[in-house]
């Protein structure tokens, strides 16, 4: 096992966006409501601002426990923000709220800490 925390910090990665792309046969899950498209929209938003993997990592994940039929589950760390029913159309607003409109933008929400 190799711990890569410092390597990621040196690269400047300070947040991770988890996007559920889980598939289930017994009922609707995030893959059925465009989970992959939401993940790609998040990546595209970050790429357009030169922030993908330089400041923010993105990972597709299995179930986050917020299944819905109207959108996708998204979790952002270390902000400790959880979102359900996210659509591709929601991504620009969500990402701007969390990370600001451009590199160095200080209007983004500050990560919260848990006690």
From TrEMBL:
InterPro entries: Thioredoxin-like_sf (IPR036249). SUPFAM superfamilies: Thioredoxin-like. It comes from Halorubrum salipaludis. It comes from the Archaea. This is 2Fe-2S ferredoxin.
